[in-house]
User: Fold this.
Amino acid sequence: MLIRVATVGYAREPDFEVHPPGMPFTQETIAWVLLNRKDFRDACEKEGIDLSYARRLVETARKGRRDGTEAEELKRRNRSKL
Assistant:
C-alpha cells in the first residue's frame, strides 16, 4: 500500500519491480478473500454485491498461472484501472 501511495504522491512508477513473479496482485487477493472467507462473502450477499467480477478475476489469474501469462496480463489490467 505504501508503494502505491508513493507512486501517486510522486506521480511516477518506482524504479524496482513492485510485483515479483508469482506474487498475487492486490485485486486478485481481494477477490480471493471475498469469495473464500465466509464473513466477507456473506456481507457481499447481504449488501447485494455481485461477485461475478471477483470470480472472473480469480479464474483468469489461476488460468494465467497455468499458461505463464499471469504477470503480464494482470499488470496490463491493473494499470488501465489506475
Residues 8 and 82 are 10 Å apart (CA to CA). The chain is about 70% helix and 0% strand. Residues 52-67 form the longest helix (16 residues). The helical segments are 2-10, 26-36, 38-47, 52-67, 70-81.
